[in-house]
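User: Round two. Same drill as before: sequence, then structure, for each protein.

Assistant: Same drill it is. First protein:
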Amino acid sequence: RGGKHLHLSLVANPSHLEAVDPVVIGKTRAKQYYTKDENRTKNMGILIHGDGSFAGQGVVYETLHLSALPNYCTGGTVHIVVNNQVAFTTDPREGRSSQYCTDVAKALSAPIFHVNADDIEAVVHACELAAEWRQTFHSDVVVDLVCYRRFGHNEIDEPSFTQPKMYKVIRSHPSSLQIYQEKLLQSGQVTQEDIDKIQKKVSSILNEEYEASKDYIPQKRDWLASHWTGFKSPEQISRIRNTGVKPEILKNVGKAISTFPENFKPHRGVKRVYEQRAQMIESGEGIDWGLGEALAFATLVVEGNHVRLSGQDVERGTFSHRHSVLHDQETGEEYCPLDHLIKNQDPEMFTVSNSSLSEFGVLGFELGYSMENPNSLVIWEAQFGDFANGAQVMFDQFISSGEAKWLRQTGLVVLLPHGYDGQGPEHSSGRLERFLQMSDDNPYVIPEMDPTLRKQIQECNWQVVNVTTPANYFHVLRRQIHRDFRKPLIVMAPKNLLRHKQCVSNLSEFDDVKGHPGFDKQGTRFKRLIKDQSGHSDLEEGIRRLVLCSGKVYYELDEERKKSETKDVAICRVEQLCPFPYDLIQRELKRYPNAEIVWCQEEPMNMGGYQYIALRLCTAMKALQRGNFNDIKYVGRLPSAATATGFYQLHVKEQTDLVKKALQPDPITPVIP
């Protein structure tokens, strides 16, 4: 009405009540970043809640508690609670312990305006007051619309089954529109003719739009904001791009991320880490996981991309491997080397932030953030992969299925520390099997596998990887940006590999120089499968067993192979489990025509990659006439309810046994006797 333009974004919302709350807040924060809205007055989140869900769903509390955190604040959200005084069939006395459904917001000392929804002008006044509060004090505010639900929970529901007295009153109660019309007529401010004219105008608009909707054919482009112009849908095939970086850029950013100001006094342990990193960059050898990750972030930032990493304890890293934010041991001053890569660098160009102790809320926030602009690498890291199931609704309803349901792409990266180190059933598994089970690729059909295109990955709902080298991790992160489509990336991140002496890469594996180790026929890029490192030729008829594995168990297998001087077993690492690398698997099957095929994993048989891999490996073998399902031998733990044993000695025995079994001279017993 004031002549100003307003842009409204409606975020797709599943029936899982309140799950969308942190997604909206994350997207709002991203809009503020991209529009340089530093005062947070030009972009605002509005959340519409139900009375039962506002009081009952824990994610409401998680979202409210993000509101004043430095890297999650949006300058206040307006919460509008449609308070029907009944939740489906549950009365308030059964649905909450507090007097008001909005009492959870008292934890923030947020103002809560309770208003009679039958008083239209009072509702307008309360909402204007809420908006002014938000713009003035930059904090959350709640409007509680005390109203009623005229009909049942849905079109065919009968509310009188459970609330007979309430609905007897409602049936005889005039609507809010009728009450307001009567009030205006009695005041003499409008006539019946004026009211009829307004009603006719509104009904006409609604009918015209309804008729137009019958001929509407949805297009994927309609759902993408202007930032996404030029990005491809699965029907528009995308070419693969290389992810290697010029050596001089690697050296320059490597120097920047391994130094700190002259008078800065870091902890001596952290100082030693940075000195080692500087030496790695100088020599070009022994680059570990933490430095490989930092190089990925740094090179993306200098290319002009926004990088955001958040989660519990991510600044230091749960396992003290990242140290992206340094703390002066005398003054407490903080310094982030990745904020000082280029002159006049935007302080938020690289953002790393410890989050509140929340999975559901924070993962939802980062998902919303990632949906705003494709030219950003947005990462959420779980403290341990085991804890990610606290955000299972986000994986099920948004991340795995969002593109299929709502045509919305996201390049969100999820890091889930995973691996069997003897830490027990709560600190061993990122539940790899769940992510693979939710993958939508057909296990019985080998897709088109053109080496220069990525039709397979575009048609899949997401990517699941279990990477074993710093260089490959570097490339899989950069691959998220260097392509013209977006897919979520689930990473089973390492724990003990962070400091494993063999889990290192040379700087030449990161660059784009032809002839260097990372450069293959197409260029330098992420390796979906890493072949055996014994220097085998294209045809090795003397190899009796091909062991396929994924993740850190490779290093234990390789160590045992060297120790036992086994020469007739090849070990290949499946770095990308989903979508399945049929072409590279078949290449290895052809290389070892006489080999027994083994899948080796640390996880129990009913977990890990086995169920997913076996079906697709069988399809690849059948196409080459190499046998059937029973020709795939399994080596790993037996089926189990718990992810891992709680006894360290038993863990060591199980791990030793499975590694030795994978390399034993005798044939391995088939899964099906």
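Second protein:
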Amino acid sequence: YLHPDEFFQAPEVMAGDILNLQVYYPWEFLSSSPCRTVVFPLMTSGVTYWVIKCLQQLDLWSGCINSYTLLVSPRLLFTIFSFILDYSVYQLAPFWEADPWKALVLLAGSYVTLVFYTRTFANALEGLLFALLMLLVSSRRSGGSSKEPTSSCLIAIVTVAGFFNRPTFLAFALMPLLYWVALNTDSPRSLRAGINCFLKLVPCACFTAAFFIMADTWYFTSMRLDNIYGFENKSLFDIMAQLSQKIIVTPLNFLRYNLNPRNLAQHGNHPRVTHFVVNGIMLFGILHILAIGAGFKMLKKYIYILPRVKSYYRGSSRILVHSDGNSMLLLFYFFPLVFLSLFSHQEPRFLLPLILPLVLFSASQNRAERWKPVIVVFNVLGALLFGCLHQGGLIPCLFHLEHLMHSPESSNHPGHYILLFAHTYMPPRSLLNIKKGDTNIEVIDLAGSEEETLCQTVGLRANNFTCSDCHLFVIIPGTVRSTITKCGVSFKNETLIFPHLSMEDPPQLSFLFSENWRSQLGLYIFHLDGAQ
């Protein structure tokens, strides 16, 4: 479990809308603050959930809606989509003077590709759209001959779609777009020609934006909240007239929220150099360090020769065209990195799209060849840490609870279940497979609450059992297991799920070398029933 957004920005929302399950709607998808487009969640998780719903309704696969299919089906679709990256690298490598197979090995061996790009992140979609844009703007064959001019309409569609997916896409798209303009500008009066080139993007860009705006407006004001806005028993004309009074442009709401420093502070403030000195190394390891070294060399070189180059080419746009491929790839890598570093909230996943220019740069001139052992060890450890250990017990825990609550025995004798989570990431309710309107199951998320709050809540729930079929489950990491023993409640049994690593409550190294080391790397499920 990498980050709550892998569930709460698509699968959780679609499970509630399409499968009619009890879910937790994040604030970005509330009608009062719509900051995320619904188009991509519908096209990804929505499609997969609609398919398994149809399979069950047609009796082609009875019981196919369960916690496993709810988790795996969207991830499987994202895994298939991730091969867009492989295709893009293979096609782009000759253009950027890199060996295609060495670039593919770097990409496929990266734990970022194996772990992050197979999860339902909007950042992963951002990376795929960036790869498509790079393909579209690279308009020369590896042999040096010219292609037919790339369709400006496709470039406009991908750019606008990326902007609606995540407005930060413009930071990734700007340099490739300027490079495309430079490639297609032969006039000495480059400014006017460049403006004309950008104007070719406007018609398709407007059409694409209109599509996203209409879809989001319809979803946030009609599909989700028809009982509030009163759309029932109205004609299509009346509905469209009412919708026109509340046009929703989700990227503008996203920008309005994130440009407010107080809002960003709620999600955590980081030093401005976090992307450079922490996140880049965490994701890409030695490749990021090599890129920084090459970036400093390039900067020193261009500061020295820029005046002569500029006078020779008579226009800054031509400098982009005549720059060597390595310099351009570094520009594609560092410009978004610098831009994203201007904001105080910095998470590693924000840099996912940068794997494409970094792999192409590292595969050229055999830069990564001598560092092969370091790269292999780094990615094996990264895949183990983020793909297996990090919050790794929470999803199996939800599988276990879903199976327990929907077992034949529980179906014949339904009881009341209280699921209390503490010191874990936010549990996606959809994986519990609870239908809307089912009041027999209650989920409480105490997040990182203090010991006093946890004990008060557990004691209150345990002392207020009103039936013999009531069940209280408390889910906490092994590193805070001692907390629950101080609450004065005797649990019927406990289940350990291994492995589970909580970086918010990390294990002490001394305990990892003791006999009880598994408990430090596990997630506990404590059970108390009404009979007790």
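Residues 140-149, 225-231 have pLDDT under 50 and may be disordered.

User: Perfect.
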